[in-house]
Amino acid sequence: MPRRKQIKRIGILTGGGDCPGLNAVIRGVTKPALDHGLKVMGILDGFEGLVIGKAIQLYDKDVSGILSIGGTILGSSNKGDPFHWPVEVEGKIKITDKSKEAIEHYDAWGLDALIAIGGDGTMHISKGLSELGMNVVGVPKTIDNDLEATDLTFGHDSAVYVITEAIDRLRTTASAHHRVMVIETMGRYAGWLALNGGLAGGADIILLPEMPFDWDAVYEKVKRRSMMGKKYSIVCVAEGAKPKGGKLVVMKTDAKRTDPIQLGGVAAVVAKNIEDNTGLETRYTILGHLQRGGGPTAFDRILSTKFGTYAIDLVIKKKFGRMVALKGNEVKSVTIENAIKHQKLVKPTDQAVLAAKAVGVCFGTKEL
Ligand code: F6P
Predict the structure, then answer these.
(1) Which mutation among 145, 292, 343, 344 tests ligand 1's pocket best, with the greatest number of atoms within 8 A of CB?
(2) What does DSSP say about strands 233-238 and 85-89: parallel, antiparallel, or unpaired?
(3) Angle at 321 between CA 60 and CA 96, to 5 degrees
(4) Which atom of ligand 1 sits closest to the CA of residue 188?
(5) Which of 145, 110, 133 is nearest to 21 (CA)?
(6) Tens digit of each residue's pLDDT (9 = 90 or more) over 202-217
(7) In what order do the strands lie in the sheet with 136-140?
(8) Which of 178, 266, 277 is nearest to 225 (CA)?
(9) For the chain, which residues make up each domain, given as ranges?
(10) How far is the centre of ligand 1, averaged over its atoms, from the C-alpha of 316 (Å)?
(11) What is the three-class DSSP state of 319?
(12) Which residues are catalytic?
C-alpha cells in the first residue's frame, strides 16, 4: 500500500443494511472531493465490491439529485465481511479471510483512502482494514442508533418518522374496532426505535430488549385501560424484546450474514398472549423494512450532509482510523477503535423512558 504525500483518489462504500441518508452522505463526500480535484471511486455492494473488485468512478452528475432518495446508489451488503468471507465447501459454509483481496483492489484502484459508511459491522471491518494499513474514515449509519460513540446515527430519525406514522394509522382501526394493536419495530438488540417511535406515536405499552417484561404487567395495563373506558390500546414492541426469563424470537439464522441472527416475529407472540389472557381482540403488524425505506427526513438529510462533508475533510487532513460522530450539536470525530467498544443501549433511567413513564406508558414492568 504505497503512501502518497497528497490524497488524490478515494474510495467510498456503503456497508450493512441500507437506510435513508446514505445517498446524502455519498453526495456530501463526493461533491467537495471533486471540488478539491480528487477522483472518487464508488465501490459497489459494500465490502463485497472491495473483495471482488466492483467499482465505478463517480462524477458530479452521479451525485446530483440523490439527496432525497432512499437506499444507496452504490448498493450494499451485509454478507461481504472480508475477514469472515463465507464459501461453500461440500455443502457446508466455511469462513475464510479475504482481506488480502480487499487490499489488492484498494491498491489496484490507486486509492489513498476509503470512506466506509455503515453501522457497527462496517466499523469493525474498517478497524481491521486500518490495522492492515488502509486509510479508513468511518461514517456511522443505522436506523437502530446503537453506536455509543455518536449521539445519533443518520437514518434513525427517518425510521422513527415511519413508525410514528404507522402508529397514527393503526390507531384509527384500533379505535374503530376497539382492539389492541401490537406494532413491531426493528432495532436488533437496542430499543431506540421502539422507544422513540412508541413515544412519538403515543403508544400505551413499549417493550424493549433492555427491559425484559413481565407478562402480567402487560395484561394488567391493557385490562385497566379497558376498564377505564379506553376502547383500545397500542403496544409498540422492539424485535429484540423478550419476557423476563424468556428467549428472543428469531425469524431465521443465516451463517453468511455478518450477524447470522435475523430477529422478527415477537409481535405475533405478544398479540396472541394479550388476546388469550385479556379476552380483548388483538392484531399485530410487523413494520419490517418499511422502516428503512423511502427518503430521509429533513433532519437526516442535514445530518448526512454534515457527516459526509466532515468525512472528506478528515481524509484531506489525513486523519485516518477515525469515525465521524455527532456530539451534542456538533459533528466531531472519534477513533474507530473507541467507536466500536460499546453498543449504545437504552437505560431505564434515560430521559425518554422517564418522560414516557410520566405520561403513563407501561414498559411491562411492575409499576404501571
Ligand atoms: O441494523 C439495521 C436492521 O434493520 C435491524 O434493525 C434489523 O434487525 C436488521 O437490520 C435486518 O436486517 P436484514 O435487512 O438483513 O434482514
Answers:
(1) 292
(2) unpaired
(3) 95
(4) 8
(5) 145
(6) 999 999 999 999 999 9
(7) 55-58, 39-43, 9-14, 113-118, 136-140, 322-327, 330-335
(8) 178
(9) 9-154+296-328, 158-293+347-358
(10) 32
(11) coil
(12) 144
CATH number attached to the domain at 158-293+347-358: 3.40.50.460
In this predicted structure, the answer to whether residue 2 has a pLDDT above a threshold of 90 is: no
Q: Residue 54 CB: number of other CB atoms within 10 A?
A: 17
Closest CA to 76 of 33, 36, 112, 125: 125
Give 3-state DSSP helix, strand, coil % of the chain, rounded to 5: 40, 20, 40
**CB-based contact 138:335 (threshold 8 Å):** no
CA–CA gap between residue 340 and residue 346 (Å, rounded): 17
Fold match, 9-154+296-328 / 158-293+347-358:
yes
Burial status of residue 213 (CB atoms within 10 A of its CB: 0-12, 13-18, 19 or more): buried
**What does pTM read for this prediction?**
0.95
Percentage of residues of the chain with pLDDT beyond 70: 98
8 Å CB contact between 48 and 79: yes
Which of 19, 117, 144 gets mutated to test ligand 1 (max ligand atoms within 8 A of its CB)? 144
Beta-sheet pairing, 92-96 with 85-89: antiparallel
List ligand 1's pocket residues with C-beta within 6 A.
17, 78, 119, 142-144, 186-188, 239, 262-263, 292
- Tell me the three cell numbers of residue 289: 423494512
Looking at CATH, the fold of the domain delimited by 9-154+296-328 is given as: Rossmann fold (3.40.50)
